[in-house]
Structure formats: C-alpha cells, structure tokens
Amino acid sequence: MRRQIVLLRRAKQIFQTEGLVALLRRGFAFRATYYLYEHSPSERLKGRTEADFMPKIQGLTFEIVSTNQEADELAAEGLEFRSQDGIDRERLDRGAVAFCAFVEKELAHIGWVAMTEEAKKMVDSLPYKVDFADNEVCMGGVWTNPKYRRMGLLAYTDFKEHQFLKERGIVKSRASIVATNIASQRGVAKFGAKMYAEAHYSRVLWWKSWKEKPLA
Ligand SMILES: CC(C)(COP(=O)(O)OP(=O)(O)OC[C@H]1O[C@@H](n2cnc3c(N)ncnc32)[C@H](O)[C@@H]1OP(=O)(O)O)[C@@H](O)C(=O)NCCC(=O)NCCS
C-alpha cells in the first residue's frame, strides 16, 4: 500500500512538472542508464576536516534527522523539513536517516542514507546490491535548493554523512546516479567515490530488466 502511495505521488510530480504525455510515456515504458558508485568513509575523511568543507553561507545550520518525532520537533521550531514529494515520513518510518542543511528556517539541502534493506526501498529502489549485513549502506534522495546550488552544500553534507557512517563502523557507501545527471557525477567523482558498474534499467508495463556491467 505504501509503495502505491509513493508511486501515486511520483506520478503527480511528473504530471505537474513534465505534463500528461510524459506521464503516460513513463507509465508505459522507461529506460535509463545508471552509474553505480562506492566510497569508503575512511577514504572520504582521510586528511580532511569539517572546516575544509564548511560552506560560506550566512545562517547555515545542519541537522541529522532519524525519527518522525525529531522531524516534528524541527517543524515545531519553524524549520521547513518536509520534502516536496512528501515521502520523508515514510522514509523515516522505515529507518532512513536524513542529513539536512538549513539557511535560517529554509531547507537548503537534504540527502538520505539507508542503513537497512527496508530503508533502501524508500531511498533508492533500483535493485543494485548493498550488503547491509557486512556494514554497507546506500545513499540517495539528494537535493539542493536551487537558491543555494554550487555553494558547497552537497560537498559538506556528503562529508558529514561519511563522518556519521565511520562512527558507526560502516565500511562502504553505495549510490546510483542516472547517466544524464552530470552535476552529480562530477560531484561524487570530485569527492573520490569509485564508479564500479554501469547499469541498464528497462521497464515496459509490468516487465522489468536490470543489467549491471562491472567497470575495471
Ligand atoms: C546535484 C546537486 C545535488 C548538487 O548540489 P550542490 O549543493 O549544488 O553541489 P556543490 O555545490 O556541493 O558542488 C559539489 C561539486 O559537484 C559538482 N557540481 C555541482 N553542480 C554542478 C553543475 N551544475 N555542473 C557541474 N558540476 C557540478 C562540482 O564538481 C562541484 O564542485 P565545484 O563547485 O568545486 O566545482 C544539485 O544540483 C541538485 O539538487 N540537483 C537536482 C537534484 C539531483 O540531481 N539530485 C541528485 C540525484 S543523484
């Protein structure tokens, strides 16, 4: 049932942003290439400190949100946490953790980490393998408010996420990025993440295919 709600919200978002034809086309068939990345928290933090990534933005604060109670408390303080597509409550319920940057009360950046298989379904539903039992996690749901893009918020939050993960004994973070998203590809490459596979995803009505090709 929750999955259907998420799909309906996603359909509404496509309809509002791209129109009816795009929605019908996506509902019938979808094809995309993704690159899969992995990163080790120890490598990410090596020789670097938080100060190296601190964005020069007035009124910036940072919050890690793990429960809906914490999200409600932020909302009660007037901080705008709830995301546009409204799936954040579901994500927190399923154990995902949100890393948020605020400028005054406004959400400037958000990124999600799934610490369990259950949370992964809500953070990145693409079927690449994440070995949660072997201290791996995955990341997704990354968004910087257009007003604050190119000011270092992704770089800072990514650093804070890996700091959090290292403290919890996590040895690998994984993420998928659609091949057309050049900004994200450049960002993660700059942070030192390794591109380990290219994946092709196709869907026609209920038929789905996912093929991964490891990269040397
Ligand atoms: C991708 C996105 C999260 C980047 O966030 P950001 O806070 O602007 O990123 P940062 O300022 O920390 O940039 C970090 C690095 O990423 C790369 N980068 C970011 N935006 C870029 C752009 N528009 N073009 C090229 N490279 C870009 C650069 O290497 C940059 O380092 P530099 O500025 O020193 O050159 C943001 O553009 C966004 O929200 N896009 C829409 C949603 C999205 O694509 N989410 C990611 C899904 S995987």
Write structural notes for this entry.
With 216 residues, the chain is an alpha+beta fold. The chain has a single domain, classed as 3-Layer(aba) Sandwich (Aminopeptidase). The protein has 8 helices and 8 strands; from the N terminus they run ααβαβααββαβαβαββ. The protein has an 8-stranded mixed β-sheet, with helices on both faces. β3 and β4 (106-114) form a beta hairpin. α1 packs across α2. It is globular. The mean pLDDT is 91. Bound molecules: coenzyme A (COA).
SSE arrangement:
Elements: H1 2-18, H2 20-28, E1 29-39, H3 41-45, E2 60-65, H4 68-76, H5 88-93, E3 96-103, E4 106-114, H6 117-123, E5 136-144, H7 153-167, E6 172-178, H8 182-191, E7 194-204, E8 207-214
Parallel strand pairs: 5-6
Antiparallel strand pairs: 1-6, 1-7, 2-3, 3-4, 4-5, 7-8
Helix pairs in contact: 1-2
The structure holds coenzyme A (COA).
Features of the shown structure:
216 residues; alpha+beta; Aminopeptidase; 8 helices; 8 strands; globular; binds coenzyme A
Q: What fraction strand?
A: 25-35%
The secondary-structure element order is HHEHEHHEEHEHEHEE
Number of domains: 1
Bound molecules: coenzyme A
CATH homologous superfamily? Gcn5-related N-acetyltransferase (GNAT)
Let me know the average pLDDT. 91
Describe the sheet with the most strands: 8 strands, mixed
- Rg from alpha-carbon coordinates: 17 Å
Number of strands: 8
For the termini, the CA-CA separation is 40 Å
* Number of separate helices: 8
CATH class annotation: Alpha Beta
If you consult CATH, what is the topology? Aminopeptidase
Could you give the order of strands across the largest sheet?
2-3-4-5-6-1-7-8
Shape: globular
Poorly predicted segments = none
Oligomer: single chain
